[in-house]
Amino acid sequence: MSQKTLFITGASSGIGAATVAKAVEAGWRVAGFARSADKLDSLAQTHGDSFLALPGDVTDQDTVEAAVAKCVDSFGGVDAVFANAGLGAQSAGTQQGDPSNWRTMLDVNIWGALITAHATLPALQESKGHFLVTGSRAGRTHMKGSIYGATKWFIHAWATNLSLEMAEWGGRCTIIAPGMVDTPFFDSPKPQGLVSEDVADAVVWAMAQPAHVNVGEVYLTPNR
Fold first, then answer.
1. Active-site residue, 219 included
2. Which of 12, 148, 174, 202 is catalytic?
3. pLDDT higher than threshold 80 for residue 28
4. I want to staple 112 with a disulfide (CB 3.0 to 4.6 A). Which of 58, 96, 153, 201 is the partner?
Protein backbone atom coordinates (compact mmCIF):
# COMPACT_ATOMS: atom_id res chain seq x y z
CA MET A 1 0.00 0.00 0.00
CA SER A 2 1.45 3.38 -1.03
CA GLN A 3 2.16 6.06 1.56
CA LYS A 4 -0.54 8.73 1.81
CA THR A 5 0.04 12.49 1.79
CA LEU A 6 -1.41 15.13 4.10
CA PHE A 7 -1.32 18.87 3.28
CA ILE A 8 -1.69 21.01 6.41
CA THR A 9 -1.86 24.77 6.97
CA GLY A 10 -0.79 26.40 10.21
CA ALA A 11 1.75 23.60 10.47
CA SER A 12 4.60 25.33 12.30
CA SER A 13 3.39 25.27 15.93
CA GLY A 14 0.65 24.20 18.31
CA ILE A 15 -2.01 21.89 16.88
CA GLY A 16 -0.38 22.02 13.46
CA ALA A 17 3.07 20.88 14.57
CA ALA A 18 1.55 18.21 16.81
CA THR A 19 -0.51 16.92 13.89
CA VAL A 20 2.59 16.80 11.70
CA ALA A 21 4.31 14.60 14.29
CA LYS A 22 1.32 12.32 14.85
CA ALA A 23 0.65 11.93 11.13
CA VAL A 24 4.28 11.07 10.33
CA GLU A 25 4.24 8.58 13.20
CA ALA A 26 1.12 7.02 11.64
CA GLY A 27 2.91 6.60 8.30
CA TRP A 28 1.80 9.72 6.42
CA ARG A 29 3.95 12.04 4.35
CA VAL A 30 3.17 15.61 5.33
CA ALA A 31 3.43 18.89 3.42
CA GLY A 32 3.42 21.66 6.02
CA PHE A 33 2.38 25.20 5.07
CA ALA A 34 2.90 28.16 7.43
CA ARG A 35 4.41 31.65 7.60
CA SER A 36 7.33 30.68 9.85
CA ALA A 37 10.04 29.28 7.56
CA ASP A 38 12.42 28.72 10.49
CA LYS A 39 9.93 26.55 12.36
CA LEU A 40 9.12 24.61 9.20
CA ASP A 41 12.83 24.00 8.65
CA SER A 42 13.06 22.64 12.19
CA LEU A 43 10.18 20.25 11.47
CA ALA A 44 11.95 19.14 8.29
CA GLN A 45 15.08 18.34 10.28
CA THR A 46 13.00 16.33 12.76
CA HIS A 47 10.89 14.39 10.26
CA GLY A 48 13.27 14.07 7.31
CA ASP A 49 11.94 12.92 3.95
CA SER A 50 8.45 12.48 5.41
CA PHE A 51 8.02 16.26 5.67
CA LEU A 52 7.97 18.97 3.01
CA ALA A 53 8.35 22.56 4.22
CA LEU A 54 6.16 25.05 2.35
CA PRO A 55 6.51 28.58 3.77
CA GLY A 56 3.82 31.08 2.86
CA ASP A 57 0.80 33.16 3.85
CA VAL A 58 -2.52 31.30 3.90
CA THR A 59 -4.36 34.46 2.84
CA ASP A 60 -2.43 34.69 -0.44
CA GLN A 61 -4.25 32.62 -3.05
CA ASP A 62 -1.33 32.39 -5.49
CA THR A 63 1.03 31.23 -2.75
CA VAL A 64 -1.39 28.58 -1.52
CA GLU A 65 -1.95 27.28 -5.05
CA ALA A 66 1.82 27.15 -5.68
CA ALA A 67 2.35 25.24 -2.41
CA VAL A 68 -0.30 22.69 -3.33
CA ALA A 69 1.28 22.25 -6.76
CA LYS A 70 4.68 21.67 -5.13
CA CYS A 71 3.15 19.12 -2.77
CA VAL A 72 1.60 17.22 -5.68
CA ASP A 73 4.84 17.40 -7.65
CA SER A 74 6.94 16.18 -4.70
CA PHE A 75 4.65 13.50 -3.28
CA GLY A 76 2.53 12.55 -6.29
CA GLY A 77 -0.84 13.72 -4.98
CA VAL A 78 -2.85 14.72 -1.93
CA ASP A 79 -4.96 12.28 0.10
CA ALA A 80 -5.99 14.57 2.96
CA VAL A 81 -5.96 18.26 3.77
CA PHE A 82 -6.12 19.86 7.22
CA ALA A 83 -7.05 23.55 7.01
CA ASN A 84 -5.79 24.43 10.45
CA ALA A 85 -4.42 28.00 10.21
CA GLY A 86 -6.28 30.34 12.53
CA LEU A 87 -6.09 33.63 14.40
CA GLY A 88 -7.85 34.92 17.51
CA ALA A 89 -9.18 38.33 18.48
CA GLN A 90 -6.83 40.73 20.25
CA SER A 91 -9.71 42.40 22.11
CA ALA A 92 -12.92 40.72 23.20
CA GLY A 93 -16.33 41.80 22.00
CA THR A 94 -17.68 44.04 19.27
CA GLN A 95 -17.76 47.48 20.89
CA GLN A 96 -14.25 47.12 22.32
CA GLY A 97 -12.87 45.11 19.41
CA ASP A 98 -10.26 46.20 16.89
CA PRO A 99 -11.64 46.31 13.32
CA SER A 100 -8.16 45.99 11.78
CA ASN A 101 -7.65 42.80 13.80
CA TRP A 102 -11.07 41.57 12.65
CA ARG A 103 -10.04 42.08 9.03
CA THR A 104 -6.90 39.98 9.49
CA MET A 105 -8.79 37.35 11.48
CA LEU A 106 -11.50 37.05 8.83
CA ASP A 107 -8.83 36.71 6.14
CA VAL A 108 -7.02 33.91 7.99
CA ASN A 109 -9.94 32.02 9.54
CA ILE A 110 -12.42 32.24 6.67
CA TRP A 111 -10.67 33.30 3.45
CA GLY A 112 -7.65 31.11 4.22
CA ALA A 113 -9.81 28.03 4.76
CA LEU A 114 -11.81 28.73 1.60
CA ILE A 115 -8.82 29.14 -0.70
CA THR A 116 -7.12 26.11 0.87
CA ALA A 117 -10.17 24.07 -0.08
CA HIS A 118 -10.41 25.62 -3.53
CA ALA A 119 -6.73 24.88 -4.23
CA THR A 120 -6.78 21.29 -2.95
CA LEU A 121 -10.18 19.94 -4.00
CA PRO A 122 -9.06 18.93 -7.53
CA ALA A 123 -6.29 16.76 -6.05
CA LEU A 124 -8.66 15.41 -3.40
CA GLN A 125 -11.24 14.54 -6.02
CA GLU A 126 -8.61 12.54 -7.86
CA SER A 127 -7.73 10.59 -4.71
CA LYS A 128 -11.29 10.53 -3.32
CA GLY A 129 -9.65 12.20 -0.38
CA HIS A 130 -10.46 13.83 2.93
CA PHE A 131 -10.74 17.53 3.86
CA LEU A 132 -10.49 18.44 7.53
CA VAL A 133 -10.82 21.91 9.03
CA THR A 134 -10.36 23.36 12.51
CA GLY A 135 -13.65 24.47 13.98
CA SER A 136 -14.11 25.22 17.66
CA ARG A 137 -16.38 24.98 20.65
CA ALA A 138 -16.78 28.70 19.89
CA GLY A 139 -18.52 27.64 16.68
CA ARG A 140 -21.06 25.56 18.57
CA THR A 141 -22.12 27.95 21.31
CA HIS A 142 -22.88 31.65 21.75
CA MET A 143 -20.18 33.82 23.33
CA LYS A 144 -20.82 37.45 24.27
CA GLY A 145 -19.79 39.72 21.40
CA SER A 146 -17.30 37.21 19.97
CA ILE A 147 -16.16 37.93 16.41
CA TYR A 148 -13.75 34.99 16.58
CA GLY A 149 -16.66 32.73 17.53
CA ALA A 150 -18.60 33.99 14.52
CA THR A 151 -15.73 32.99 12.20
CA LYS A 152 -15.97 29.48 13.60
CA TRP A 153 -19.75 29.43 13.14
CA PHE A 154 -19.00 30.10 9.48
CA ILE A 155 -16.52 27.21 9.40
CA HIS A 156 -19.02 24.79 10.91
CA ALA A 157 -21.78 25.78 8.48
CA TRP A 158 -19.55 25.87 5.41
CA ALA A 159 -17.78 22.58 6.14
CA THR A 160 -21.13 20.82 6.53
CA ASN A 161 -22.14 22.16 3.11
CA LEU A 162 -18.76 21.16 1.68
CA SER A 163 -19.27 17.63 2.97
CA LEU A 164 -22.40 17.32 0.83
CA GLU A 165 -20.49 18.64 -2.19
CA MET A 166 -17.59 16.22 -1.70
CA ALA A 167 -19.88 13.25 -1.11
CA GLU A 168 -20.94 13.44 -4.77
CA TRP A 169 -17.53 12.10 -5.78
CA GLY A 170 -16.73 9.96 -2.74
CA GLY A 171 -14.81 12.53 -0.71
CA ARG A 172 -15.05 13.09 3.03
CA CYS A 173 -15.11 16.23 5.16
CA THR A 174 -14.53 16.51 8.91
CA ILE A 175 -14.73 19.41 11.35
CA ILE A 176 -12.23 19.14 14.21
CA ALA A 177 -13.84 21.19 16.99
CA PRO A 178 -11.81 21.53 20.19
CA GLY A 179 -12.61 23.49 23.30
CA MET A 180 -9.84 25.29 25.16
CA VAL A 181 -6.38 24.12 24.03
CA ASP A 182 -3.14 25.12 25.76
CA THR A 183 -1.23 26.36 22.70
CA PRO A 184 0.74 29.47 21.59
CA PHE A 185 -2.61 30.67 20.12
CA PHE A 186 -3.21 32.23 23.56
CA ASP A 187 -1.03 34.91 25.18
CA SER A 188 -1.06 33.12 28.55
CA PRO A 189 -0.89 29.41 29.49
CA LYS A 190 -4.16 27.47 29.71
CA PRO A 191 -3.23 24.51 31.94
CA GLN A 192 -6.89 23.59 32.35
CA GLY A 193 -7.23 23.01 28.61
CA LEU A 194 -6.53 20.23 26.18
CA VAL A 195 -3.02 19.87 24.77
CA SER A 196 -2.17 20.04 21.09
CA GLU A 197 -1.53 16.31 20.91
CA ASP A 198 -5.14 15.62 21.95
CA VAL A 199 -6.40 17.45 18.89
CA ALA A 200 -3.74 15.90 16.64
CA ASP A 201 -4.86 12.44 17.78
CA ALA A 202 -8.42 13.32 16.74
CA VAL A 203 -7.23 14.37 13.28
CA VAL A 204 -5.25 11.18 12.72
CA TRP A 205 -8.11 9.06 14.07
CA ALA A 206 -10.61 10.67 11.67
CA MET A 207 -8.28 10.13 8.72
CA ALA A 208 -7.78 6.48 9.69
CA GLN A 209 -11.45 5.56 9.39
CA PRO A 210 -12.37 3.26 6.49
CA ALA A 211 -13.35 4.94 3.23
CA HIS A 212 -17.06 4.21 3.70
CA VAL A 213 -17.10 6.09 7.03
CA ASN A 214 -17.35 9.89 7.07
CA VAL A 215 -16.75 11.47 10.48
CA GLY A 216 -18.66 14.71 10.19
CA GLU A 217 -17.30 16.29 13.37
CA VAL A 218 -14.98 15.49 16.25
CA TYR A 219 -15.96 17.66 19.22
CA LEU A 220 -13.53 17.41 22.12
CA THR A 221 -13.39 19.43 25.34
CA PRO A 222 -11.32 19.29 28.53
CA ASN A 223 -12.57 16.98 31.26
CA ARG A 224 -12.01 19.22 34.25
1. no
2. 148
3. yes
4. 58
